[in-house]
Amino acid sequence: MSTKHELILRYIESLDVGEKISVRQVARALSVSEGTAYRAIKEAENQKLVNTIERVGTIRIEKKKKENIERLTFAEVVNIVDGVVLGGRGGLHKTLTKFVIGAMQLDDMRRYIDAGSLLIVGNRLKAHEIALIAGAAVLVTGGFDAADEVKKLADELNLPIISSSYDTFTVATMLNRAIYDQLIEKEILLVEDILTPVDETIKFYPKETVGYFNNINSKTVHSGYPVVEKDGKLVGIVTSRDVVGKADHEMIGKVMTPHPITVSGKTSVASAGHSMIWEGIDLMPVVSDSGVLEGIISRQDVLKAFQMTQRQPQQGEKIDDIVINQMKAVSDDPQSIEFTVVPQMTNQFGSLSYGALTTLLTEVGNRAIKMRKRGESLPENMNVYFIKHVQLGSTVTVEPRILHMSRRIVKVDFDLFSEGELIAKAMFMYQLFER
């Protein structure tokens, strides 16, 4: 039986895109308390089903697919630029494809504006009308207003016209930064991106028998399966090891492992992989906040995801990327690397920061491990000792040395030199992620 929380989420999903909702409306429609409705609406906001805009309210928006995450809705634009909606509220859920700065003659502007774009312009009243007629939304900078007839046209066409107190350059910079941040978010794979969905997952019920399990298991190559109740809630995991020596008539609920380690769909793949290594498990169920099974991920899924991230297009550059891009291999020692301390790698004193150094060492260690043994690895713990501060512009050589390698653990020692002088030492322990 579904919970009130789940019923509210389904109700919100059934609403038309662009429809306005409120806590009181949901509470009245579904006969629930306003507290329950409020919590469900907040969850819907986390799931990108609705968006709350100051002075406008909460509206149903189209849930964006992962591959289009770098696109913004006009509702998000309002929040980013601290804007006020002057008209066309019915189109706030729509997605913009590009933005155009209106620093040109009106006739030239027409060539750049098309449906789905956003015109960023000051108090050029005729430009506002031209953009709306072409199917574009308008962002008026400098805190200026729009003409009443333009606001009326925006309402008729369901195309937002937004006013922001910022200047044109600042607004364009803010939007560009938001798109860039979403490109970085796109690069971060989540469990929900790689899971095997529940309708494609082989699962068992507690009252099914060991004999039935053996029959199904003999036809697959899997080692474990989730066990769920009739309402879909996860109650355990059953593996081939659990049923060894058990009679065929025994129920799975008696032999399964209860309360298994689980993960949510919003968890990063790296975090889930780290848990799988630490706990020594090959299968992890993915559950909702209410404990309902949404799917499963395997160790093989995580490995494929790690390989996929290395081939993704349109990635935004993170601080880690800037740091790692400084690495260059040393010609006479393939495991050692050199890097130059650039401004992005320094702390407030102008010397190499601890964060930048640990990022570099993590990557150098991973590289050394891959040269010895194919596969992925994750750092488990680290100790870094600065012997001498490394100044901006210095060239540093990192020499890794693998001290110990087992099936799961690798210990790596690092010596760092600048101008022939030892400036830092480190010891890292990595967990190997084998197939």
Question: Could you please describe the fold and organization of this structure?
Answer:
Keywords: CBS domain. InterPro entries: CBS_dom (IPR000644), CBS_dom_sf (IPR046342), Diverse_CBS-Domain (IPR051257), DRTGG (IPR010766), HotDog_dom_sf (IPR029069), Ser_kin/Pase_Hpr-like_N_sf (IPR028979), Thioestr_dom (IPR006683), WH-like_DNA-bd_sf (IPR036388). The chain is an alpha+beta fold. The protein has helices spanning 4-14, 23-30, 34-46, 74-80, 106-112, 125-133, 148-157, 168-187, 191-194, 210-217, 240-243, 252-255, 269-279, 299-309, 319-324, 354-372; strands at residues 20-21, 50-53, 57-60, 84-87, 98-101, 117-121, 137-140, 161-163, 196-197, 224-228, 234-239, 257-258, 283-287, 293-298, 328-330, 333-340, 376-386, 395-405, 409-418, 421-433. The strands form 5 sheets. Strands 15-16-18-19-20-17 form a 6-stranded antiparallel beta sheet. The protein has a 5-stranded mixed beta sheet with strand order 4-8-7-6-5, sandwiched between helices. β15 and β16 form a beta hairpin. α6 (125-133) runs parallel beside α7.
